[in-house]
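Below is a filled-in request sheet from our internal design queue. Each sheet records the structural input a requester submitted and the sequence that came back. We keep these sheets so that new team members can see what a complete request looks like end to end.

REQUESTER: design group, bay 2
PRIORITY: normal
MODE: inverse folding
CHAIN LENGTH: 247
BACKBONE (tokenized):
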């Protein structure tokens, strides 16, 4: 399975979301996970390096790939339960190449006007890529929402803007919480710092809603029914090894 976390707007928390979903799948769903960092800023690669300092944490592998990465992703998919692709905040070749093979595409947006302006363009990109990959399930998710009750309408209005297009909009959201930044700096996830906290539950509900599964157990069973062809256990059990490719 290939999951894209991407979009045209930077700063919406794509890397944070990708990292936390990766840990949820590896830790609570017992999946072998490969992360692909397509962002020149190397946010996920740096997070993996910090994570490697803690061998007690579930192993997550990471590679850097750029450009025409379609065949590379298909190859990685044969060896892992899930390949999570973290694309930078722009419409580029890697984003479109990933959409041509992804099972799921998750596009984070903040409930801000400048983020919502990108919805129309991303709708066009998704529509184009689905001509090649009609089975891809694309979804918008609203992230970094304000916690004040008086701002609840702002969140709903953002969802309504997204619903005017043909792309699914998740009911689940993330709120602006310091724990997201704190966990990323240490190479951990919110589930490893505060497993029963609100942020951890936000990640769980987003992942389950995106995959259309009720809970981690159901997701684990889904992976068991479609195990990779070979070598997945070996790759998934080793400590991460970062590799760089310029394509």
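RETURNED SEQUENCE:
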């Amino acid at each position: 399975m290939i999951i894209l976390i991407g979009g045209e707007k930077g700063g919406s928390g794509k890397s944070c979301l990708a990292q936390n979903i990766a840990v949820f799948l590896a830790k609570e769903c017992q999946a072998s996970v490969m992360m692909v960092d397509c962002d020149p800023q190397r946010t996920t690669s740096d997070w993996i390096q910090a994570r490697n300092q803690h061998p007690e944490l579930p192993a997550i592998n990471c590679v850097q790939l750029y450009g025409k990465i379609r065949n590379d992703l298909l190859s990685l998919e044969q060896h892992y339960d899930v390949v999570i692709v973290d694309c930078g905040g722009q419409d580029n070749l890697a984003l479109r190449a990933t959409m041509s093979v992804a099972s799921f595409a998750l596009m984070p947006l903040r409930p801000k006007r400048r983020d919502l302006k990108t919805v129309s363009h991303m709708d066009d990109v998704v529509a184009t890529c689905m001509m090649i990959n009609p089975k891809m399930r694309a979804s918008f998710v609203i992230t970094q929402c304000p916690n004040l009750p008086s701002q609840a309408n702002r969140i709903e209005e953002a969802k309504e803007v997204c619903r005017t297009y043909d792309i699914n909009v998740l009911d689940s959201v993330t709120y602006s919480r310091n724990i997201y930044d704190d966990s990323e700096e240490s190479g951990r996830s919110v589930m490893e710092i505060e497993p029963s906290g609100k942020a951890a539950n936000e990640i769980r509900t987003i992942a389950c809603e995106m995959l259309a599964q009720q809970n981690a157990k159901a997701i684990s069973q889904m992976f068991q029914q479609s195990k990779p062809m070979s070598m997945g256990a070996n790759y998934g059990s080793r400590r991460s090894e970062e590799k760089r490719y310029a394509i």
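SHEET NOTES:
- The chain has one domain: 2-224.
- The two ends are 22 Å apart (CA to CA).
FILED BY: M.R.
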